[in-house]
User: Fold ELAV-like protein from Labeo rohita.
Amino acid sequence: MAVRLCDVASLLRSGSWAAEPWTGQVITAMETQLSNGPSCTTSNGLNSVSNNCTSPVEMPNGNEDSKTNLIVNYLPQNMTQEELKSLFGSIGEIESCKLVRDKITGQSLGYGFVNYVEPKDAEKAINTLNGLRLQTKTIKVSYARPSSASIRDANLYVSGLPKTMTQKELEQLFSQYGRIITSRILVDQVTGVSRGVGFIRFDRRVEAEEAIKGLNGQKPPGATEPITVKFANNPSQKSSQALLSHLYQSPNRRYPGPLAQQAQRFRLDNLLNMAYGVKRFSPVTIDGVTSLAGINLPAHAGTGWCIFVYNLAPDADENVLWQMFGPFGAVTNVKVIRDFNTNKCKGFGFVTMTNYDEAAVAIASLNGYRLGDRVLQVSFKTNKTHKA
DNA sequence: TCCTATT
Assistant:
C-alpha cells in the first residue's frame, strides 16, 4: 500500500491552502485505515474527538453507483474545488468532482464529492487519502451513500451524558436504533474531559427519530441523570440566528422609524428562508464607515442611500444583491452593471437602501465579504463631482 | 446546550 507521499506533498506545496504559516507540518500523519482496524479514532479539531466506526472501504448498501463516488469530509475551509480535484486526481482519472458550497455566500461547507472513472481508483483513494492531515483537519474519505432525502437531517445532539461515557459506549447506546454514520463527544479543550454533550449521525432520519423517542429523557445504564436527545442545529439555522442577533444589535432597532411593510416582510422572508451566514472578515467598523462617508460624501439622491459593490463575478445577477443586502433593512433597488455586448457583469453593481443606519451596517458587514472566491468591496457610492 | 456528511 504505497502511499504516494511525494505526489501528495508536492500538490500540497503548490496549493495556497498548504502554505498556512501556522501549520508547521502540512502532513503530520497519514494513518491509513483498513477495513478491519478496530482502532478507528480520528481526531478533528482541538476540542472534540470523532469516530468513524464504519470502515471506509465497506460498501454502503451495495449500490453500484457508490463504487466510484466518494464523499470527502473535514476539508480545510479555504480548500477550493480545483485543489480537491488536484489532490484526488493524483490517484486516478476523475469523472467529476464537486466541492459543496453555501448557495448564497459561496463559502465551502467543508465537504465534497469525488467520482472516479474506475472503482479501483476510488478504493485506492480511500486507502491512500483517508485520514490525511491538512492544516488543522484530518480528512475523511469514504464511499458516498446514494443521495436521498431520507438521509438528510439525521444528526442528533445529545446532552446530559455521564462525563465518564466513552464514544464507544455512546455508540452502543444508540446503535440499537440504526446505522451510525458518525459519533462525537465534545471534550474540554484544556483538560480533555468530556463536556457531557455529543452528536450521533444516523444513516437515515427515521432512525434518528426513533432514537429520540427511545432515548430522550432516559437514563443510560448506570447513569444518575437522564439524557436529552434532539435533532442537532443545522448550519443554515445557525446562520440565520447570527443574522437575527446581528439585526437585533443594529442601530435601526433604536430608531425603528417608518419602515415600509413590504421592506419588513422582505427582510423576514430572507431571514427565514436563506441559508446565509454573515461572516465579517472586514476590519472596517461602523464608525470607520461613517468617518469614511464623511470624507467622501455618500450619494443620497432623496430616494435612499446608494451603495457601491465592487468585485462581483461575471455571472453575478440582481438576485445575489437582494439576498446579501435584504437582511440588513429596506432595499429599494439593486443593479448589476453589465457589458452591453456580452451581457456579463462588469464586476460591480449598486444597491439602494432607504435608511442610513441600515446601509451603514450592511456596508460594515459586507465589505471584505468573501462571495465565492472573491472578496467584495462595499462602500457608499461617492459623488465624484463633489470630490476634491 | 452544538461537532458540521449528501451534490
